[in-house]
Design goal:
Elements lengths: L13 H10 L6 E5 L2 E8 L1 H10 L9 E5 L5 E7 L4 H19 L4 H16 L5
Parallel strand pairs: 2-4
Antiparallel strand pairs: 1-2, 3-4
């Protein structure tokens, strides 16, 4: 049996995040805050999608979503492509917000995606591949 790492899981405010997603305005350059971290939602267009296709940065669903440090807010920009349906955007944004927030709190980078994916699957169900 392998020794399991003793990593202190951070507090994740799922109810607060879901409430935010339900009230979010899906418009370009929409500013919001979650758990003390500021975000700027940027809805990208076809040109950005084509760039992502060329760079091979689309996810397994052929979608483009990422976050990066922001020059405009004290936090992160989150980029979502405009063709992603609203219902799917909620799931993706949930994941990206958790990753950015966990990173800001200093959680180990190699665990951030794993934790965000686990929490996403708890809330939205396991995705079919």
């Amino acid at each position: 049996m392998e020794k399991q790492e003793n990593i202190q899981l951070p507090e994740i405010k799922i109810d607060q995040l879901l409430e935010l997603l339900d009230t979010l305005e899906w418009e370009n350059h929409y500013e919001f805050e979650y758990d003390g971290v500021e975000f700027l939602l940027i809805i990208t267009d076809t040109e950005e999608l084509q760039k992502a296709e060329k760079e091979g940065t689309l996810d397994e669903h052929g979608e483009f979503a990422e976050f990066s440090a922001s020059d405009l807010v004290d936090g992160f920009d989150i980029y979502l492509h405009d063709t992603i349906p609203i219902g799917r955007r909620k799931r993706i944004l949930f994941h990206e917000i958790l990753e950015a927030t966990l990173g800001r709190k200093g959680f180990p980078l190699d665990k951030i995606h794993e934790i965000a994916s686990r929490e996403e699957n708890k809330v939205f169900g396991q995705e079919k591949k």
